[in-house]
Amino acid sequence: MGPEALAQVLRPLHGMFAAERFPKLLVGLEISDDAAVYKITDDVAVIHTVDFFTPVVDDPYDYGSIAAANAMSDVYAMGGEVVMALNICGFPPSLPVEIIAEILRGGAEKVLEAGGALAGGHTIEDPEPKYGLAVMGIVHPAHILTKGAALPGDILALTKPLGAGIITTAAKGDAANPAHLPLAVESMKRLNREATRLARLVGVHACTDITGFGLLGHAWEMAERSGARLLFGLDRLSFLDGAIRYAGEWLFPGGTCRNEQCYGRHVEFAPGIPDEMRQLLFTPETSGGLLLAVPPDRADSLMARFAAAGQPVWVIGEVTEGQGIMVEG
Question: What percent of the residues of the chain are helix, what percent strand, and what percent coil, each to the nearest 5?
Fold first, then answer.
């Protein structure tokens, strides 16, 4: 469901679960972040999220792994650790059980990699395969990361390259170079767990993960909730091999136009940025990286810690006074 339609269907729920009635609900519908957070004790809060989608790749094991990594990413975006997950499955009766087993194995092994336990789930018959997880994580209430605390002067960093969405779309249409898909799959399967651990060690102001709303959609959410303006440099962004080529061939998924229609009015582009590159920044990502707002005096420490851990990270912009998003060439 697109962001505008989602906002419309959620409108009748506004105020139903207000903080005065549910004081332990630290992050919910009224705040709207990457996951819900509920305080259990002074030292423990539960993070809860759910995500599932149709296949983005042909290999069933990879599909299960990517879907699981994507679902758990919201826990990491909130600064937490995964402790438990439940499968959410919809499969056609005609789908061979061996394929279903591989999907579930891919998801289960990814949960195990995250240090969590897969404890069950629910399965229905569905004409089109769907798989994902309901995930529970934990975090100290004082250490929750949200997308609404970026401050002017902060450095913006991104922990994965962009372009997985357009590469998998090109692959579905048999228009992708076979060499490009494995790198995209590897990126989508990589957990954001270590990136979150390093970000917590450094101390960041705000965090969100880049998924279905694309870089600019999720960046707008951070800008809006922080009451600030986010400035990106196109020349600072990192893209997976093939992404720019497929943008030039206009092989965008349908969600690209939907994101542009919703968020485009909040984004300014410097003159000379080609239309295909503008669209690429609105393109949905799957299991993308973390967008971090880092205090300027901690940016060098962040880069050093990521380098020492062998984790990728790119400085892609900064937070300024104002509103909305600006993309410079």
Answer: 40, 25, 35
